[in-house]
């Protein structure tokens, strides 16, 4: 007998058509019908409509109820604004239909008025009107305005063949934004007149829903926007800047603590809806950020929040669309569960709710059911019925017996797993649960570096997963079966082994109809989406432990990324030699699903850097890391360059009072970066300055009179350097300076794992070294760097002094150098910074 069940859902409320303020919504952007995503999927041989269906399923699975897309008008129009019938338009209509079927509401931004190339070159197959005008003039010139009117009128009246309705008549499309991030060059009267002209065009075409306009750009013309006949206003938030070119690290909760709008007293502010059209903590892999941002948005009164942007599952392995963003359920499972929690934050937290200043606001919600933690890289929803977490946790469910929904990555007191992907457990009835298991994923390269469709940044491995599950209604020896399968298995003391897919756990698992709808959603019990299988090139990931004290073994742990067990993994110290017979090697033991560990004994170590490589033996192949070179260091023909040989793994064996280098003068800046407050870059540089052979090289900071900024802040993340370091109680922070001019003092600082800053003011003297005791650093404001967008947001976080405890040097994650730069030109050379 097949039993049809209505599964419990804590995700989607009942659909209620209406405007932006009808109810709070949270979701994402997604761009498959246009630009690079469109081209890339074609290059990869992917059916774009199938891709849309796969991704929209995951959006629904994550409980997203909002979707926003800015249309590339250059791919939809000709030179006078006629709407073209082409594949881009058809895919847009298909996407709208797919979203609508999943109960996801839509805001359309009608035009971008810029090219379709990024990260490639622009193309213009249609002679589109936007290519005829500079971005900052397209809203001001009469011919461009006429083309926009033609386009807008046709866009909202064209019938969608998949829904049978126009955008104007489609209840799922609840608002339209006139354009994306406009750049105005006219005065306030002209700007208001332009907006009214576009809004009147839309209303004349039958659009009777919300019309939105961006107010977080063109801040010198804010009054013009509120004088216009619009219903709502749009904002963005990129709190960690954009396009760093590498992963950004640290505690970002102070950055996400508030979203203060300086013009919130302007006439018309309260009467218009507020929309976050795009936001993302860019270049960040941490999983706790989205719920914290949603909390802050609700405090600021936003009812519509859409992250930018969700990566198509068929492209996410490369992260080519927007290298500074990366989000996909399969490839960034922790971040995706964070999105799911953020959607629930948006629905539950009342508008205007204030949970205090960080760190007080890290536990919040009407029932204090939400938690965000940078130290644990964890976000949680734990309210008794829902138990969702973005990373492994020791926190127990608030009410185990009442659990209805688990959405998670990692292990917990109720699920112990060796899986690396996301999983969902939904209670069907008192004796049955639905398990949806995503495959393992391992990030193999920095996903925020320069992208390419030839450069994979993560690997999906659909291997078996072992899970020990303690859920209400499941006995120690519960039955389980794959949905659509024909064989039931039995758990061994609550432990099961399953492959990625959908499984029924508990009573009569074979009796469930895969087509049964999931209550409160537009999903079916048997639905499942995962990346298409792809070959995995064996690789190895390893981060050395940093430093160890003399007389202590070095523990080496590595991750082997492969879709099969490899033969062996062996450590080769740097001193091994082809001509010797007594080389001492260390075979690593498998200690986890993909992890291998070995100890290099203390009696084999000497003071100073201990350099080594690791070789993976895989069938007939021998691969040496770092570098993935074929062969081993004992092969006479191992192909490595001198530079590559210099990049061996290294652990420093040193006494606790030995210097710890935090910043050195190097061509690449040694991972440092500068920020200006307020942001202004003309006449400012921070670059390596070669003074050899007569003097040591320096990093030179220079500001000339053209730079209109008050502060220059140099920062470097040193969390990896400080791992394993245990400086003595009297350790000091040192800075070695070279030539200096126009500056008499600077501020040295450290930022700890809690995102809190301690500083000291020190004098500047040419060719000198200054130092300050770590214990002498005083609590201070934290500079919010890099500059966030929009530019009106604050640049410093002022914590309560009660947040500070004694500084543990092991908690230092970032070092800072702050230069007052409000007046004269200045030059400061820095040779290095260290703790000793």
Protein architecture, described:
The structure is a single chain. With 836 residues, this protein is an alpha+beta fold. The strands form 10 sheets. A 10-stranded mixed beta sheet has the order 11-12-13-14-15-17-18-25-22-23, covered by helices on one side. Helix content is 13%, strand content 30%. The termini are far apart. The protein is globular.
Radius of gyration: 28 Å
Indicate the low-confidence ranges by residue numbers.
1-16
Shape descriptor reads: globular
How many strands appear in the DSSP assignment?
A: 50
Strand content: 25-35%
Amino-to-carboxy terminus distance: 74 Å
SS content category? alpha+beta
- Determine the fraction of residues in helical runs and give it as a percent range: 10-25%
Which sheet architecture does the biggest sheet show?
10 strands, mixed
Instruction: Trace the largest sheet across and list its strands.
Output: 11-12-13-14-15-17-18-25-22-23
Mean pLDDT: 94
Please give a quick description of this structure.
The protein is α+β, with helices and mostly antiparallel strands and 836 residues long. 13% of the residues lie in helices and 30% in strands.
SSE inventory with pairings:
Blueprint lengths: L24 E5 L5 H9 L4 H14 L4 E5 L16 H15 L3 E5 L32 H16 L1 E2 L4 E2 L6 E5 L10 H17 L5 E5 L7 H6 L4 E6 L35 E7 L9 H11 L4 E4 L25 H16 L14 E2 L5 E4 L4 E5 L3 E4 L15 E5 L5 E3 L4 E8 L2 E6 L2 E4 L14 E4 L3 E5 L9 E4 L6 E2 L4 E4 L2 E6 L32 E3 L5 E2 L5 E8 L6 E6 L12 E2 L1 E2 L4 E6 L7 E11 L2 E5 L3 E2 L11 H4 L3 E5 L6 E5 L8 E5 L6 E6 L8 E6 L7 E7 L1 H4 L9 E10 L3 E8 L4 E7 L5 E5 L4 E3 L1 E2 L12 E2 L14 E9 L5 E10 L1
Parallel strand pairs: 1-2, 1-10, 2-3, 3-6, 6-7, 7-8, 8-9, 9-10, 14-15, 27-36
Antiparallel strand pairs: 4-5, 11-12, 12-13, 13-14, 15-17, 16-21, 17-18, 18-25, 19-20, 21-24, 22-23, 22-25, 26-28, 28-32, 29-30, 29-33, 31-32, 33-34, 33-36, 34-35, 37-50, 38-41, 39-40, 40-50, 41-49, 42-45, 42-50, 43-44, 43-49, 44-46, 47-48
């Amino acid at each position: 007998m097949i039993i049809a069940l209505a599964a419990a859902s804590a995700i989607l409320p009942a659909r209620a058509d209406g405007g932006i303020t009808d109810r709070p919504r949270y979701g994402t952007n997604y761009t498959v019908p246009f630009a690079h995503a469109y081209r890339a999927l074609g290059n990869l041989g992917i059916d774009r409509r199938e891709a849309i269906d796969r991704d929209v399923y995951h959006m629904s699975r994550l409980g997203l109820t909002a979707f926003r897309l800015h249309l590339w008008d250059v791919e939809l129009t000709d030179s006078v604004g006629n709407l073209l019938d082409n594949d881009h338009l058809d895919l847009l209509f298909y996407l709208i239909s797919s979203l609508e079927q999943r109960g996801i509401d839509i805001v359309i931004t009608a035009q971008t008025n810029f090219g379709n190339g990024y990260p490639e070159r622009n193309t213009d197959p249609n002679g589109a009107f936007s290519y005829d005008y500079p971005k900052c003039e397209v809203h001001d010139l009469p011919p461009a305005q006429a083309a926009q009117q033609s386009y807008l009128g046709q866009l909202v009246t064209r019938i969608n063949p998949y829904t049978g309705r126009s955008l104007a008549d489609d209840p799922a499309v609840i608002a339209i934004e006139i354009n994306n991030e406009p750049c105005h060059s006219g005065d306030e009267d002209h700007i208001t007149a332009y907006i009214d002209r576009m809004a009147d065009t839309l209303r004349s075409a039958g659009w009777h829903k919300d019309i939105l306009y961006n107010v977080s750009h063109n801040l010198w013309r804010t009054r013009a926007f509120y004088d216009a006949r619009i219903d709502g206003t749009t904002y963005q938030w990129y709190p960690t800047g954009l396009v760093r070119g590498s992963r950004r690290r640290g505690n970002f909760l102070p950055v996400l603590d508030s979203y203060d709008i300086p013009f919130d007293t302007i006439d018309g502010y309260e009467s218009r809806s507020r929309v976050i059209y795009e936001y993302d903590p860019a270049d960040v892999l941490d999983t706790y950020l989205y719920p914290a941002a949603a909390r802050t948005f609700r405090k600021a009164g936003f009812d519509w929040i859409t992250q930018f942007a969700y990566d198509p599952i068929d492209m996410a392995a490369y992260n080519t669309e927007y290298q500074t963003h990366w989000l996909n359920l399969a490839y960034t499972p922790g971040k995706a569960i964070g999105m799911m929690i953020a959607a629930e934050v948006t629905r539950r937290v009342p508008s205007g709710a204030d949970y205090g200043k960080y760190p007080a606001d890290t536990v919040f919600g009407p029932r204090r059911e939400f938690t965000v933690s940078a130290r644990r890289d964890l976000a949680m929803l734990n309210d008794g019925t829902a138990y969702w977490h973005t990373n492994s946790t020791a926190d127990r469910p608030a009410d185990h017996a009442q659990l209805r929904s688990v959405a998670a990555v990692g292990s917990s007191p109720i699920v112990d797993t060796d899986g690396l992907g996301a999983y969902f457990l939904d209670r069907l009835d008192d004796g049955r649960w639905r398990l949806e298991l995503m495959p393992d994923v391992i990030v193999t390269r920095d996903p925020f570096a320069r992208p390419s469709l030839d450069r994979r940044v993560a690997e999906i491995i659909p291997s078996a997963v072992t899970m020990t599950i303690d859920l209400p209604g499941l006995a120690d020896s519960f039955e389980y079966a794959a949905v659509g399968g024909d064989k039931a298995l039995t758990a061994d003391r609550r432990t099961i082994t399953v492959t990625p897919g959908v499984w029924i756990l508990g009573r009569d698992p074979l009796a469930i109809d895969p087509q049964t709808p999931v209550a409160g959603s537009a999903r079916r019990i048997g639905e499942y989406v995962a990346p298409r299988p792809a070959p995995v090139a064996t690789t190895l990931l390893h981060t050395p432990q940093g430093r160890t004290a003399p007389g202590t073994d070095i523990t080496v742990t590595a991750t082997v990324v492969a879709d099969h067990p490899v033969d062996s993994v062996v450590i080769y110290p740097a001193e091994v030699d082809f001509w010797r017979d007594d080389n001492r090697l260390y075979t690593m033991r498998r200690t986890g699903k993909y992890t291998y560990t070995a100890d290099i004994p203390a009696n084999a170590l000497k003071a100073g850097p201990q350099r080594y490589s690791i070789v993976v033996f895989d069938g007939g192949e021998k691969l040496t890391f770092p570098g993935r070179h074929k062969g081993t260091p004992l092969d006479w023909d191992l192909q490595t360059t001198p530079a590559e040989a210099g990049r061996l793994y290294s652990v420093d064996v040193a006494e606790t009072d030995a210097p710890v280098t935090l910043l050195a003068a190097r061509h690449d800046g040694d991972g440092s970066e500068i920020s200006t407050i307020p942001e202004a870059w003309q006449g400012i540089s921070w670059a390596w300055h070669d003074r050899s052979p007569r003097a040591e090289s320096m990093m030179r900071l220079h500001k000339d009179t053209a730079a209109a900024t008050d502060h220059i802040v140099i920062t470097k993340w040193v969390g990896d350097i400080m791992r394993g370091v245990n400086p003595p109680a009297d350790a000091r922070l040192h800075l070695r300076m070279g030539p200096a001019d126009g500056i008499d003092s600077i501020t040295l600082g450290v930022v700890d794992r809690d995102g809190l800053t301690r500083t000291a003011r020190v004098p500047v003297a040419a060719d000198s070294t200054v130092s300050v005791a770590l214990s002498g650093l005083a609590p201070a404001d934290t500079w919010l760097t890099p500059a966030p967008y929009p530019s009106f947001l604050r640049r410093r976080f002022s914590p309560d002094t009660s947040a500070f405890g004694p500084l543990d040097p092991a908690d230092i994650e970032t070092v800072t150098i702050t230069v007052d730069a409000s007046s004269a030109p200045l030059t400061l050379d820095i040779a290095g910074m260290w703790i000793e």
